[in-house]
Every structure is written in C-alpha cells, then in structure tokens.
Amino acid sequence: MNSPAQPKYREVVDDNGRVYRIGETDRDILGRSRASMVWLPWIAMMAISSSEYAFTSAEETLSDAHGWHGAHIFWLLGVWVLFQAAVAFPAGRLRESGRVSARSAMMIGAAGSLLGYLSLAYAPHVLLAYLGFGFFGGGAAGFVYATCVNMVGKWYPERKGGKTGFVNGGFAYGSVPFIFLFTSYMDLENYQGILFAVGVFLAALVAVTGFFFKDPPKNWWPPHVDPLKVSEDPRVRRALLKNPPAVKQFTPMEAVKTGILPLMWFLLLCTAGINIFGIAMQVPFGKEMGFAGGIVALAMSLKAIINGTGRGVIGWISDLYGRRNTLIIVCAVLGLAQYAVYFSGSIGSMPLFLLASMISGFGGGAIFPLFAAMTADYFGENNNATNYGLVYSSKLISGLVGAGMGAVVVDTWGYGTAFVIAGSVGIGCAFLSFFLRQPKLPTQTEPAPVVAPIKERALVVD
Fold this sequence. Notes:
The protein has 19 helices and three strands. By secondary structure, the protein is mainly alpha-helical. A three-stranded antiparallel beta sheet has the order 2-1-3, with no helix packed on it.
C-alpha cells in the first residue's frame, strides 16, 4: 500500500534577498487551522492577566491579612513586572535555539503562575511573597507572554497586526472577573481559599492550551499569499503596503545596530511605565477622591476591558494605516488621558473619571501589540521572540518606575504631580515616534536577484 505523498515546499528569494518558504499549508504542519494558534494563545494570555491587572484590587485584604505595609503592595507589583519582562529575552533565545519548545515554555508558565498565587495566600513573610509572586509568578507570566505574542506573528506573517492585537488583548480583559472578585467578595475569612482556587484554575488553563502549541518552520509563508506579487485580497494587499515585510531576518545584534530597536526600547519603557502607573494608582486615587469602592472597581474593570479590546482594535487599525502612524496617535492619547484622570478625580466627576479611565486603558494597552507587530515588521519573524524580548525588556525598568517610583512621587508631591509627569511623558513619546523607520539594507554594489527559487523538498511532519 502506497503511503500518501508528503507535502512539498520551495524557497524563493525576493529582491532584498529575503527567503520565503512556501507550499505547506497550516493544516500540513498543525493538522488543523492556524486560527487555533490565535484562540489558544488568547485564552492563555487571559489566564495570566489577573496577576498584573487585578492585583491591586486585592490590596486592602492582603495588607490586613498579612500586615504588609501599603508600599509593599506597589513594590510587589513592580517586582512582578520586572521579572515578567526580564525573562522575555532569555525565553526568546531558548525558544528560537530549539532548547525550549513552545509547549515546554507554557508548562513552565503554568507552574510558576500557581506558585505566585500560593505565595500570596500562604506566605508567612513579605519576602516570600516577593520570591513567590514577584520572581516565580512574574517570570512564569513572562514565559507565557513571550510565547503567545510571538507565536501569532509567525503564523500570520502577512497580516499580523490585528491577530497580535487580539491575542495581546487577552492580557488585560481576562482580569475583569477577578477585579470584582477580589474587590467585592474576598475578605479575611476566605482570601486563602479564593487565591488557591484562582491559582489552580488559571494554571490549568495555561497548561491545557499550551499543550497544543507548535511553531511553524523558519521562513514559513502561507501558500495562498504570493510574497513576490501583489495580493488579490484587499485586506492583505493594504496591510503589506502599509507595513511591508522586513527586508531581511535581522539577528538581535543587527537589530540593535540599526538604532531603531534602541529607540523602540526607550519608547516602550516610557509608555509601559505610564500604563503600569495607571494600573497601580487608579484604585487608591479613586478612593482618596471619595468614589465608592464599587465605582473604583467598575472604573478599573472598564479600564481593563478597554485596555484589552483596544489592543485588538489598534492592531487592526495599524494594518490599515501603518504601525508608526498609529503609534504616534496612541502615545498622544495615552498622555492626554493622564491629565483627564486627575482632573476628573479632583473635581469629583464620576462619569468623567470613568471615561478618562477607559481612554487611559485604551492607550496603555494599544502600545504592546503595536511594538510586537512593529518588531516583526522591521526585523523579521525568525528572530522575533528574541528581538521583541529585547524591546520588551524595557518593562524591567518601567514596572519599577511606574509602580514603585510612582508611589514615591505620590507620597512626596501628591497625585497631581504624578499624573502631570505621566501625561507629559506620553506627549513626548508621540514626538519621538516620528523617528521610527523600517531599517534598510546597506547599499549594494550589485543588485540582488529579483526571484531565485532555491530548492524543493519534502516536508516530514512529526
């Protein structure tokens, strides 16, 4: 009996020398539609989001239960963010070297996420909470985040903005039910049981979804989109026109030497710091301004919802109008929203406070998928986990600045000064974004061939 013929691929080279591997479908590689590599990462991202976006909603209960000073709560969040960002680059290196598979990275993430919640529930000393929640929980979230975000760009290289934004959005609005749970139902009598149950549930989601993760081959390109011709699909045609593929697959060092990646690093440092500042300060600021706890929880939930949905919407918009143009507008909106949050709170306007909170959430969330997609657009998909890991590593500092130093500024000069500084930084980032450009190849003495079919081989599906 003859075995079925294995699907074949061929590799072609464009006029920049970039290689595209075409011929294999997503079903040849995965055994199912590549759409599953959007939905599964989306679910996993929702599972890890509550550690960052719902954490401060548990501030009062955790402080009373463990006797932790209020500043410890903000620094715990800062340390979590630090390690969540710190593992992005090494996780990317491990993933792209083949030493850690996507599935293994997700299992590491599931285990660390569970340890994080257990430490919040049972840590006898705040130092153990820093270790369990900050180090293990934050690092685990970093493994999951880096794996999920970069996976989507590899499976949708021709139209990555909307897909990346959708998956990235799960990192925010997945926290909404837990914001209400921690604010309205968790107390000194049940906090350990609730945190234990939440930890087990969310870790299980990460593990189950991660079991089905798989990367496409290097240089893979969907066979229905010819990389050397103008696409007949208007959505793909416009996305590739506004955000053309990288001229080559840049290594991390090559990307750094362009000067563009360091600028992206600095812009994400500033904008992510503003986002984390809002997450850490909005709840205590709202309460100090006299808003009821339910209103503050609603504002934080709306912020998380808009933060998440904004990531998907902004990714789709960036496909239509270009990443850089979209980023400029987002930075300006993020900065102006900080002024609006403080103004609305200072005058006691609840409707304006809710609206400003939502706008702030929109801007704060939109920056992440923009930078993730832009990194692949500028430097290619093959090394995107490492390259975006470098860009995302700026969150190492932004978490400490946004949460920890934000608390210091508030204690010293008050909320007004803190929100004005945050807003001004956002406006400054909008101006700096004008300098972002897709790197070009060095001038060549001889032109590269326009098309050069290299080889045709049988694909062995494991």
